[in-house]
Amino acid sequence: MLFPLTENIHYKNNALHIENTSIENIANAIGTPFYAYSHARLMHNINSCKDAFTPYGIHVHYAVKANSNLHILKLIGEQGLGVDLVSGGELYRASEAGIAVEKMIFSGVGKSKTELLHALEMNIGQFNVESAEELALLDKIAAELATHRAINHPNSQRPIINVTLRVNPDVAVNTHKHITTGQKGNKFGIDIELAFALFQQYQDHPHITLNGLAMHIGSQIFDVAPYRKAIQKLLALVKDIQSFGAEVTTLDLGGGFGIHYENTESTDKTQQAGLEFATIAKVIAEETESFKGKVAVEPGRSLVADIGLLVSRVNYVKESNPTPFLILDAAMNDLMRPALYQASHPIKEVVKNAEDVTRPYDIVGPICESTDIFAKSYALNKALKAGDLVAFFCSGAYCAVMSNSYNSRDIVPEILVNNTDVKVIRERVNQETLLKFEEERLIKI
Length: 445
Ligand SMILES: *Cc1c(COP(=O)(O)O)cnc(C)c1O
Prior knowledge:
Layout: E1 9-12, E2 15-18, E3 21-22, H1 23-30, E4 34-38, H2 39-53, E5 59-63, H3 70-78, E6 82-85, H4 88-96, E7 104-106, H5 113-122, E8 126-129, H6 132-152, E9 162-166, H7 192-201, E10 209-214, H8 225-243, E11 250-252, H9 269-273, H10 277-287, E12 294-297, H11 301-304, E13 308-318, E14 325-328, H12 337-341, E15 347-349, E16 358-364, E17 373-381, E18 389-392, E19 414-418, E20 421-426, H13 431-436
Parallel strand pairs: 4-19, 5-6, 5-12, 6-7, 7-8, 8-9, 9-10, 10-11, 11-12, 14-16
Antiparallel strand pairs: 1-2, 2-3, 4-13, 13-14, 13-18, 15-18, 16-17, 19-20
The structure holds pyridoxal-5'-phosphate.
Pyridoxal-5'-phosphate binds near residues 107, 256 and 300.
């Protein structure tokens, strides 16, 4: 099967299906645009991820920001994966999805005092701290909480607060400039020298246990070399830290494993797959062989990107010179990646025309912004007309999570397909609902 088609998202009698459900039937039932996910594909991805990392004892924490739908989180949690969180909202969702606090990592460059306090009260598994200032704040809140606990629960044991420093290993990564995170000048992480100094400062600290190093060097990385380099830098730092008697018991190596978004005519599987779990797992296992503590990874995109489609109807085929416009009912508010990162998703007709003749289209949405363009000069069937359906592939990661209601458009729904079982897992949020939040209310200041 030619990428991006899989056993789970495929054509049957020229009609696009997720598993055994026709996309056209879903569109007719709930209207467009909508996201649809394959349950089987999600399970496939989770299993290949577990099969790759678990034999080496590497822990997997799903990066929730890629797709934080409650039902997706539940499925991922049920399969035993932990989570990586970047906000109090994600923490709330992960708890609602039933994920145990020990399996939670709280990352993020700008956690608020309220978020930190809440996460401390919940006693979550690991805090990934990104600055000396955040570490000082976390320590202060932990100290206050300890005093409070000592007064109110004098016999209770003090919880261990595991803290990991996110280090910026300063390695070059060949990816889009908007998604590199591990080079000097990025807002993320702490320089190696400062991390060393903080370990000295916080050694044997009364309130927090600084015991780990973390990194996340970017997204859409296909080459293992920057991972090797960054891990080596981290391990050199571990040695330095150990040399004055402190311990590093956790290495959290982040995510960023690349997936292909292009249509691939190649039948060579390695050309289609991106950075496979098995490949990166082996590299990490090799590089961390000498490390005796816990090793973790945080894949996001690679677990969920290819489980989903965004389905949209053609509103108009606007003839124009030199390229006709395919004007869809989906727009940049529903799928922001093309406008935000110049990303491209494979686009295909939902019902294939028997006569396979194409012409180039500029594929756009109806929003009043010049950046509301999904693709330029993109070849699709010549006979496409208003009312026809198209699907954007690989739309399970960083898509529905970024959707919004700009231009007073409804917030796009999400559908989960399990064989012939079809569930709405997020309702379309219409203007009536949105206007409920615009009822005015006097507040006392
Ligand atoms: C976004 C993010 C990830 C996941 O990145 P992917 O490219 O989706 O795998 C992992 N860790 C942290 C800290 C992140 O911010």
